[in-house]
Amino acid sequence: MKFPASVLALLLATTAFAQTREVGPYTVHPIMPGVLRIEDANQTNPSGIHRDAEGKTTGFNNCSDMYLIVGGDQALLIDLSNDIKWDTTAVTSLQAVVAQEIGPRKLHIAITHFHGDHTGMLPAFKDNPAVTFWIQTDEFKGREIFPADRTVPIGGDSSLDLGGGVIVDAVKIPGHTDHSTAYFLRGKNFLFSGDGLGSGNGVWIFSAEGFTKYRATVDRLIATIRTPANGIDEQQLIVFGAHYWQKRDKEKLTMQYILDMQTLIGAIKAGTAREEKVTFGPYLNTNFISGEATITWNKADAEKFKAE
Ligand SMILES: [Zn+2]
User: Fold this and answer.
1) Do residues 31 and 19 lie in contact, with contact meaning Cβ atoms separated by under 8 Å?
2) If you measure from the C-alpha of residue 118 to the centroid of ligand 1, how many angstroms do you get, rounded to a whole number?
3) CA 113 to ligand 1 center in whole angstroms
């Protein structure tokens, strides 16, 4: 088959764009031009549970995902991965990936929440005077880790204009932590949600207060998505969690995932949620499941919520 030169060029460009690539411990997955997922896993240390030929567990990489959004004259990196100890090139590899993608653009860094598997590679950027930190500072009260003179606080919800029509809207989604924050890429129906909604395996809720906050978050998020002025097409919405590998066999997380969370909260209240014992610690002892949604929480606190 013979293609005209223009079609061939487009095909080649598309092929080049679509390729994932490994750089040190990282795998870079293009989502669309100017939007990338960077995972701290590679073929020698893949995501999830590692098993030998007999099925025995030999290792585990609970890798997390950073998302890089490249605008006209600025770029935003959301989250900073685990603190990688298993590859000595982690710092320089991450710096190289970001530099290659953003070129001369100014770099901002945003963090979904304070947990160490999302802030681990801060040393790669902390001392770079050209980098600005766009931070929900309430989340880091008492654990100030960002250079104060280059930290721009997000007060509640906030937006960042990266130039060229690329705008990121931050929305608070407390529950998993008190000030967890998610980021909408405006006009693209992408939601980068950290651990705030879970990544498919279940959202971890660490207290009764956390659950109360999460209930409000799910209602508010659905209302935000359905506010026409926000220009979000819920049919097209894709939720990108910070542990992307945990979506397992699901092709992607969509609006249905968020709606199932709302249904699940109602089912916990009604006592009709499917329950599964887990042992993620003394508090996290039960998965509550409905549809695509799982909330990993505490059986006794769920019983109290039911009785309220
Ligand atoms: Zn977390």
Assistant:
1) no
2) 7
3) 7
pLDDT in tens, 197-225: 999 889 999 999 999 999 999 999 999 99
Q: How far apart are CA 15 and CA 11, in angstroms?
A: 6
CA of 270 to the centre of ligand 1 (A): 27
Cα of 111 vs centre of ligand 1, distance in Å, is 11
CA–CA separation, 79 and 37 (whole Å): 11
What's the mean pLDDT when you consider all of the chain?
93
The CATH architecture one would assign to domain 20-307 is 4-Layer Sandwich (3.60)
How much distance in Å is there from the Cα of 4 to the middle of ligand 1?
50
Mean pLDDT calculated for residue range 281-293: 96
Q: How far apart are CA 228 and CA 294, in angstroms?
A: 28
- Dist CA 45 CA 61 (whole Å): 7
In sequence order, the β-bridge partners of residue 275 are 288
The CA 176 to ligand 1 mean position distance, Å, reads 7
Q: Does residue 49 contact residue 57 with C-beta atoms inside 8 Å?
A: yes
Cα 200 to averaged position of ligand 1 atoms, centre (Å) = 13
What is the model's pLDDT at position 15?
A: 47
Q: In the predicted model, is pLDDT for residue 9 greater than 90?
A: no
165 CA → ligand 1 middle, Å: 31
Q: How far is the CA of 298 from the centre of ligand 1 (A)?
A: 17
Q: How far is the CA of 236 from the centre of ligand 1 (A)?
A: 26
Phi, psi (deg, nearest 5) at residue 107: -105, 130
Q: Are strands 35-39 and 48-51 parallel, antiparallel or unpaired?
A: unpaired
Predicted local confidence at residue 11, as pLDDT: 52
